[in-house]
């Protein structure tokens, strides 16, 4: 085509954030980003996405890097390219709603440290949860991108999305992003949605579509034909599967057309060569669940959520009932008013669906998060919730229909006092605000000079001396897509030299792998040694998880039905109650312990 008037497509590359988050559990280190920054900076991307909830979390939790330092060093290394971050509205990068003063300070510090474009979203598309963040972005003089979390349900229509986009523009949005986190979009649905949005709002429309079902590049093509000029892609070394369409492929697709991006394919290929080498280093974090999988088009359940659930069911020796859970998910989602399935609603719905199946009775056991959700703690569900389920979960407790953050008092001053001199800056206070326990440990470790990044398991290179324990599986937890997977390793004895052949079992699929034996990689399970529950006074759990809180001590009197423990599985908290009235005779768990179903955790007589 030789049209004189061209309207180039602008590319935002997500290799430094969503690419490695989607494919190698968010483990890429700053040291592997900086060497390629000069080449990335020369490309002429619309933006590079560099920061978000999972990257912040992984920096503090696993890599022992200060996430703020990552941002400032990328800012320095990428002077010519706008930097973008993903912000969960009032949740910022944490897992709860923050008071407005924390949101304002967080946005201001992120802007000062180098973020140019803030993509702001809320899991429920409740725009009240975006208000403060959007205002703060505007106040900082940066680009506020309002986000539509795309989902499919009887109450999500083209018109609801167009209305949401108009309201976002009214709130000051400089652009609108369609966020298809699960890979639900199809090419023709994209055409319709984009054409509607381009008509409805004056600001640019961006498309962020995961390639999970293998459809995203087709969706982008149709989006561009329908008037979208901004697409998110990922360097080919970290593209496709649960990540995004390849930057190089999309650039090539539009070459010589009116949509030509003008980007240099040869330079992009060199960047790909670099990242392909980087990816090898993180091979231990690769998972079969990041491959293309059309399931989301069948069950509307995101891939990461499916594997997570499969793991839960396997631990319950109930993998055979996984299809029951997939059938139950749409029912729970309907009961809860059709929330889009994205962090944290994907976990809320998934865990409740698993519990409904495993306990043999729907809503016999209800997680604290479902209760909080039904009390209005996350905002307004897209549609009315099921009245009977609500009554079962929260009885006659009043539902808060206001903006959740209106219940919160300013909290920066309290956070500053609580973290004290461990914080050397406001950024440190905000790190602590995002992750109270983890953040404090991180800041303490930094002060004491004891921060050590997790070891990167080497799949096939020599070195270490200590053998992996044989026979008994050892467990560790990896995070993919912000969701935790428990992986078991069983040593199978001899390897040559320091290399060990082991079976790595993820979601019931043992795979033989060879890697360097290192004890840092293998953490001993802590759950062994507890007796099996056999009496009514033996408090146990129905789901494997961690102890978040122990609410009673030896000698305490408890009522039947009183909560004695809070456990957490898949980031969901559940109260565990005593079945009988009596006195606490023994407590066999402490905060942080790993527990499995059937163990005696508390004894009551
Ligand atoms: Mn994404």
Automatic annotation (TrEMBL):
Domain (Pyruvate carboxyltransferase) spans 9-269
Q: Does the keyword Zinc apply?
A: no
Q: Which CDD domains match?
A: biotinyl_domain, DRE_TIM_PC_TC_5S
InterPro entries for the chain? Aldolase_TIM, Biotin_lipoyl, Carboxylase_cons_dom, OadA, PCB-like, PYR_CT, Single_hybrid_motif
One Pfam family this sequence matches: Biotin_lipoyl
This protein's UniProt keywords: Biotin
Instruction: Give the Lipoyl-binding domain ranges.
Output: 530-605
For this protein, the record's NCBIfam families field holds: oadA, PRK09282.1
Question: What name does this protein carry?
Answer: Oxaloacetate decarboxylase subunit alpha
**Organism from which the protein derives:** Salinicola endophyticus
Read off the lineage from the record.
Bacteria, Pseudomonadati, Pseudomonadota, Gammaproteobacteria, Oceanospirillales
Q: State the encoding gene.
A: oadA
């Amino acid at each position: 085509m030789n049209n004189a008037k061209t309207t180039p497509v602008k590319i935002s590359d997500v290799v430094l954030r969503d690419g490695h988050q989607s494919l190698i559990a968010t483990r890429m280190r700053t040291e592997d980003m900086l060497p390629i920054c000069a080449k990335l900076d020369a490309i002429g991307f619309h933006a590079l996405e560099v920061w978000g909830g999972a990257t912040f979390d992984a920096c503090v939790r696993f890599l022992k890097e200060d996430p703020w330092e990552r941002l400032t060093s990328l800012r320095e290394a990428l002077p010519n390219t706008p930097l973008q971050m993903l912000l969960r509205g009032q949740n910022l990068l944490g897992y709860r709603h923050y008071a407005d003063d924390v949101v304002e300070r967080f946005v201001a510090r992120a802007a000062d440290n180098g973020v140019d474009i803030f993509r702001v979203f809320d899991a429920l598309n409740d725009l009240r949860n975006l208000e403060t963040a959007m205002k703060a972005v505007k106040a900082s003089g940066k680009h506020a991108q309002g986000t539509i979390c795309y989902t499919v349900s009887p109450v999500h229509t083209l018109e609801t999305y167009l209305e949401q986009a108009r309201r976002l523009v009214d709130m000051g949005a400089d652009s609108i992003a369609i966020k298809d986190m699960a890979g639900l979009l199809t090419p023709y649905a994209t055409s319709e949605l984009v054409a509607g949005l381009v008509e409805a709002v004056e600001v640019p429309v961006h498309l962020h579509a995961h390639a999970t079902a293998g459809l995203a590049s087709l969706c982008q093509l149709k989006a561009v034909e329908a008037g979208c000029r901004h697409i998110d892609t990922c360097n080919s070394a970290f593209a496709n599967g649960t990540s995004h369409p390849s930057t190089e492929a999309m650039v090539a697709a539009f070459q010589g057309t009116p949509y030509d991006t003008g980007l240099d394919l040869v330079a992009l290929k060199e960047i790909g060569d670099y990242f392909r080498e980087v990816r090898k280093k993180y091979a231990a974090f690769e998972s079969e669940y990041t491959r293309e999988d059309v399931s989301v088009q069948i069950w509307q359940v995101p891939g990461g959520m499916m594997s997570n659930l499969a793991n839960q069911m396997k631990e319950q020796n109930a993998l055979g009932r996984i299809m029951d859970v997939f059938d139950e998910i749409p029912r729970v989602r309907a009961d809860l008013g059709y929330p889009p399935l994205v962090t944290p609603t994907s976990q809320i719905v998934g865990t409740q669906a698993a519990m409904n199946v495993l306990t043999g009775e729907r809503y016999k056991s209800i997680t604290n998060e479902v209760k909080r959700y039904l009390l209005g703690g996350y905002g307004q569900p897209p549609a009315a919730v099921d009245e009977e389920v609500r009554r079962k979960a929260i009885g006659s407790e009043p539902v808060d229909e206001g903006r959740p953050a209106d219940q919160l008092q300013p909290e920066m001053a309290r956070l500053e006092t609580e973290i004290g001199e461990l914080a050397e800056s406001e950024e440190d206070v905000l790190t602590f605000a995002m992750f109270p326990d983890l953040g404090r440990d991180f800041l303490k470790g930094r002060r004491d000079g004891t921060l050590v990044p997790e070891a990167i398991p080497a799949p096939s290179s020599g070195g270490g001396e200590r053998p992996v324990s044989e026979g008994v599986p050892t467990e560790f937890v990896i995070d993919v897509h912000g969701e935790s997977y428990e992986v078991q390793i069983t040593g199978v004895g001899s390897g040559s030299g320091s290399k060990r052949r082991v079976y790595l079992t993820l979601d019931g699929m043992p795979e033989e792998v060879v890697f360097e034996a290192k004890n840092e990689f293998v953490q001993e399970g802590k759950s062994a040694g507890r007796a099996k529950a056999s009496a009514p006074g033996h408090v146990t759990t129905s789901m494997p998880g961690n102890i978040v809180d122990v609410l009673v001590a030896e000698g305490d009197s408890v009522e039947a039905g009183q909560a004695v423990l809070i456990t957490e599985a898949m980031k969901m908290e559940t109260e565990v109650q005593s079945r009988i009235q009596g006195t606490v005779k023994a407590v066999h768990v402490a905060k942080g312990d790993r527990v499995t179903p059937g163990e005696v955790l508390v004894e009551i007589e």
